[in-house]
Amino acid sequence: MSDLAGQLEIRLDQRSGAVAIGSSRPVTAARVFAGKSPAEVVRQLPTLFSLCGTAQAAACTAACEQALGRQPSAAVLARRRALVQAETIKEHLWRLLLDWPKMLECKAEAMGNINANANANANANGSSKSRGNGKGNAGAGANARASTLALPTAASAMPRVMQAFMALRQAQQAVGDPFSLDEQQAERGAAAEIDSSRLLDLVADQALEAAPADWLHAVDRLATLQRWSEQTGTPAAGLVRALVAQGLAGCGANSVLRLPDSPWQQLAWSLASVEADAFIAAPQWRQECAETGPLARVAAQPLIADLLARHGNGLLTRLAALLVDLAQSACRLEVMLSTTVEGASNTARSWVANSATLEPQAEAISNVDPENSRLQDLGRTAMSASFTASGEPKSVLANKVMAGDTGIDVGADVGMNDGTSPDRDPRLGIGTGTGTGVGSAEAARGLLVHRVTMINGRVEQYQILAPTEWNFHPQGVVAQGLTAIARSGAEGAELERLARLYITAVDPCVDYKLYVS
Amino acid sequence: MCLAIPAQILEIDQAADTGIVSLGGVRRPVSLALIDDADIGDFVLVHVGYALNKISAEEAERTLAMMREIGELAEQAEELSAAQSEINR
């Protein structure tokens, strides 16, 4: 039972740079839902996959609703998305406050000093820069030897992050569950007033030291990122300084693809194919490995585009992508929870129509990318909302946000992922309890896709395609990144440290064992 | 698919903010730094060495039952796969 979460086993050969990745993750665990009612699945699934339970709930509910031929209201979709953003913020802060500092050997003591001075940080520039360089420091070694259970000092705010997130979720659940298949319950949940300020304050205090929209506007290229890191006393800024000081900006850079913005149709076919189990265990995009996650989501954003041009998809680009994704999530959460949705009974389709008017490139919901095509430039959109302080940009953003991820054209149960257009699933019937649905969510670690087939109101098959299987594919981004690190000449303990750092930067959602030989 | 596994707190070291939990009958050390007012006997969700949040005994039992079922399904699938290999040989 204790091993049920599974584990990754990553082997790196120092001489050749060869990497082997094995996984005992229970990638077919979703089979446990066969035979259950959709209401049971929607209730139970997020408790089982609780680490990213909100994104799981969003994808699950969307899949089940589509299979049942139901369409949630715009208000319900907006609330679900807001809660997914909150979860992403919680997860990203975990990476920034807990995981990265441990792996980067940022000196606990120095990070603590920086942290304590975060709000009165007149002289952080210069003095704190030298603190960020943990390489070769005795304190860093002591930190590495400390118990793995101890939190790094940078993580002193992490309990508050967890409390803020849990309080937000509990406040939501106390009024109603927007992920419920019961429409009244979902609408009650969508109408609940919940306060996200505790969580948003932590984003500003612990990571950006600025309002997220302002940060996105100000930090738009490598030079401004470095200037920000030198003038900022948060643990996150310390990580940027440490990476730069240690010469690790381009560490692990490789040429793996990023999963494109609109992969839905093709993924739906792959999940419907007879090879689906193998695909779920080791997914590829058009016969090539691809990565999903913060970097894939924000690659077009100005700061990240600049970093990709200079350092490829190395460590600094990855850390910056985490910060941009965090800032964008905070912007979205703030706007979504503060925007009153007029006409809560409007269907998502009508919101999509609105969105299409505003964004000519938007297509019908069955073909549209549920997340990225509408939200790609969210940072800038949110900023304009913030800077102009007029109602118009906010309503534009609200419309973009409303175009929720309910409908992926599920395609027929075709046997091959051959790129041709399938016919619509003939079993998809409205209100019959028989049909196929595919739902998705951009979870903190990347794209999450659920597919369900139902017969007479019972689940026949349930599948989950999770981000870790893309990113920890035996030839995927981590494998290629570790090879690049080994070939850069790193050896011994330093090679192992960099490998661990890179694995953390891509972020598996399970424990892993690394063997360097 | 990120499974966080329900576990019952057996011991607490308040100074270190750590505890020992029973995870599927196995004693494991965990950090309790991320949760408030943990008590011996409480159920918590555990992920990579951290207790994430407290859950009720009922919720823990429901989740554990599902996890047992997943384990059984996986075993069946393995047996089936082994039998298939045997036939193909």
UniProtKB/TrEMBL annotation, chain A:
Gene3D superfamilies referenced in this protein's UniProt entry, alphabetically: Cytochrome-c3 Hydrogenase, chain B (1.10.645.10)
Pfam families assigned: NiFeSe_Hases
Cofactor: Ni(2+)
InterPro entries referenced in this protein's UniProt entry, alphabetically: Ni-dep_hyd_lsu, NiFe-Hase_large, NiFe/NiFeSe_hydrgnase_LSU
Keywords carried by this UniProt record: Magnesium, Metal-binding, Nickel
Residues binding Ni(2+): 509
A single MF term (Gene Ontology): nickel cation binding
Positions annotated to bind Mg(2+): 464
Entry annotated with the keyword Phosphoprotein: no
UniProt entry tagged with the keyword Magnesium: yes
Chain segments carrying region Disordered: 123-142
The protein's name in its UniProt record: Ni,Fe-hydrogenase I large subunit
Automatic annotation (TrEMBL), chain B:
Domain of life: Bacteria
GO BP term, pick one: protein maturation
Coiled coil (UniProt feature): none
GO molecular function (one): iron ion binding
PANTHER family the UniProt entry points to: HYDROGENASE MATURATION FACTOR HYBG
NCBIfam families per record: hypC_hupF
Entry similarity comment: Belongs to the HupF/HypC family.
Name of the featured protein: Hydrogenase assembly protein HupF
Source organism of the structure: Lamprobacter modestohalophilus
